[in-house]
Amino acid sequence: MAGTDNDIPQETSGKIKKFMFVNRKAPYGTIYALEGLEVVLIAAAFEQDVSMAFLDDGVYELMKGQQTKAIENKNFSPAYRALDGYDVEKLYVEKESLDARGLSEDDLIVPVEVMSAAQIGELMAQQDVVIGF
Amino acid sequence: MKLGILINEGPYTHQASDTAYLFVKAALEKGHEIQRVFFYHDGVNNGTRLTVPPQDDRNIVKRWSELGEKYKLDLVVCIAAAQRRGILDKKEADRQGKDADNIAPGFRISGLGQLIDSGIKADRVVVFGD
Amino acid sequence: MLHIVNKSPFEKSTLDSCLRVAQSGNALLLIEDGVYAALKGGATEPRVREALQKFKIYALSPDLEARGMKERVLEGVTLVDYGGFVDLVAQHNVVQSWL
Q1: Closest CA to A35 of B118, B78, B35
Q2: What are chain B's partners, defined as 3 or more CB pairs within 8 angstroms?
Q3: Which CATH number does the domain housing residue B122 bear?
Q4: How far is A103 from chain C (nearest CA, A)?
Q5: Residue-wise pLDDT tens for chain B (130 aa)?
Q6: Could you list the residue range(s) of the whole structural domain that residue A32 is in?
Q7: Range of the domain at B117
Q8: What is the ipTM metric for this complex?
Q9: What is the model's pTM?
Q10: What is the three-state SS of A60-76?
């Protein structure tokens, strides 16, 4: 991955914090889903306790069958499947958001944990860092 | 309190950079420490020295450079986002074979690791975006 | 926990999503265009009055003044300046900006 300073600095190595990354935006219409994923991967490389929450249009990021050839854009949805290889296994999808969009877990490209809004709210309050894009 | 700041939008188009600046200024005046200000997505556009805003309006880039200098802030522009949007320092310009660089004084280009580092070291991370 | 909403409730669903997810007793700070939710007399008033039963709601005063809305703030919403914004961040163990 391009960049400098991605080596774990001495004084932070070993310290683990809970990072939750909140995704509320659909893919391709804006860059937030793609660039957000890049942050998640770096947090995992720093061996932090990483989780991702998908709410509202963020659930669309996980749709199966994305074909981006005609919009001449990179299909980055396979990257969600690669997350567990980076030890990012906590993908939480809000049930209310799925229901509102007529979607179910079967429509999604990766296994996720479907949770209620209240459960997600509880999880958020337990984090050290919550970052939305 | 040590604060990490993340700015996701560029100058003028969104209020994010303004709100972040005024928040950071207030925090410094209260004696808090700003561990880092990290610019991501279009936020990297806060780091170009080539803006020429109208004279009767705030100069967002200059304001950050000046605050950065006054309080020795670490203003970091994400390299991946900067490459996509054309924000370069001299080193990057040479490395990428570009004929110019445009980074503003007081800003430096670095990796996303610096954002995670902020999350680890700071007591709070506050995000400003769309 | 402190939740920050910066979008108008008429433009985006941000406020509704935040209110749906936030836990009772959490704090909500309205900034930038989010301050339009802090006003009386509009379609959001009933929703926000109800939310005031569950959450402490704050609005950033400079953003209300900028938009000419300072005189229309709903009772129960606490106004803060940037210093107050900083204090709110210090007082809550985690902060989420709803983007």
Answers
A1: B78
A2: A, C
A3: 3.40.1260.10
A4: 18
A5: 999 999 999 999 999 999 999 999 999 999 999 999 999 999 999 999 999 999 999 999 999 999 999 999 999 999 999 999 999 999 999 999 999 999 999 999 999 999 999 999 999 999 999 9
A6: 16-132
A7: 2-128
A8: 0.97
A9: 0.96
A10: HHHECCCCCHHHCCCCC
